[in-house]
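Hello,

Our lab assistant flagged a job as stuck in the queue for most of the afternoon. It eventually completed. Since we weren't sure the result was trustworthy after the delay, we are filing this so someone can double-check. Below is the sequence as submitted and the structure that was eventually returned. Let us know if re-running is recommended.
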Amino acid sequence: MTATLARVPCTIVTGFLGAGKTTLIRHVLQNVDGRRLAVIVNEFGDVGIDGEILKGCGDAACSEENIVELANGCLCCTVADEFVPALDAILARTPAVEHIVIETSGLALPKPLVQAFHWPAIKSRVTVDGVVAVVDGAALAQGRVAADLEALARQRAADAALDHDDPIEEVFDDQIACADLVVINKRDLIDAAALDVAVAAVRRALPRAVTVVTAADGKVDPAALLGLGVGTEDDIGNRRTRHDLELEHDHDDFDSFVVTLPELAEPAVLAARVAKVAEAGSVLRVKGFAAIAGKPMRLLLQAVGPRVTHQYDRRWEHGEPREGRLVVIGLKGIDHTAITQVLTGA
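-- returned structure --
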C-alpha cells in the first residue's frame, strides 16, 4: 500500500498597507531554527520590493530560490496562472519544504485565496495552517485602520457618486473576519491606554473568538505563527465577510509604481523626501531600499503615511548596481511624475 503524503501547511499573512507583514515574515525567517520554509510574496503591481527585502534576511532556512514573487495580480484572481505553478515549483524542491508562508498584497481579500485551496490541483498537497492578520496598532489607537487617512476620507466624502462604505475599511474588516490569529503590531509606538483602544477595535471587528497578540517590529515567536493547525479552508463557512455575495473584486481605488534612485549622501535626505511626498495624503505607503555613499550596507526604508523608518539590512553584493528602488502605493490618480521628482531630488 502506498503511504499518503502529508499535506504541506501554508500560513497566509494578510494585513493592510504598512501594517508590518514583510517585517514579521522577515523575523520568522531569521528565527525558525533550520526549519525549511518557502515564501510566496504577492505584491500589488509589478514592483518586486517585498521579495527583495525578504531575500536580504540572510538565513539559510529560506534561501533566495525559495522566495517566489508574484506581481501580476492578486493570488485569488490568478489561481490557475500564478498560484498553482508557484506551488508546483516549491513542492518540487529538494530537500522538501516543510512550511509555506504566503504574504498577500496589502489590498487582498484573504477569503477567496483560502477558498482556492479547494482547487483539485491544490487540495491534496497543501492546507491552510492558519490565516494571520497583521494590523497597525498605532493607527488603530487613533481610530484608523492605517496611518494618515484623513485626506482619503475627505476625498471620498466629497464624491457624491459613491454609495458604499470606504473600501479600505472593507478590506480591513474582511482581513480580520478571515483571521485565525491577529497580530497588533507597532506596540512600541503606543502606551497602555492606546493599546487598549487598539485591542478593542480589533475585538469589535472579530466575528468569533480569535487569539490577539501584540508585537513590536513584527517580532512574534514563529512557534505562535506556524503550526496553528486550523485547516482554514475547511472552516471557510465561518468566515463571514462583506464580499461574500460578490462574484469578483478589484483594486481600482489604488495605484502603484517604482522609483529608481541614484546613490544618496545620507539616510536623512531620503527620509525627508519620503515624508514630503506623504504630506498630500494620497500616498499611503512607500517601501524599498537605497544606496548611501560610503556605506557597504544597503539601506532598507519603509514608510506609512508620514512615519518613516530605515535601517541597514545587508551588504551590497559584488557587481550589484548601487542604486535604490522604492515602490510607492497610493490612491488612484497619484502624480507619478511629481512624486518621482521629489524622491529623486530632480
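-- support follow-up --
The delay was a queue issue, not a problem with the job. The result is valid. The longest helix spans residues 192-205. The chain has a mean pLDDT of 77.
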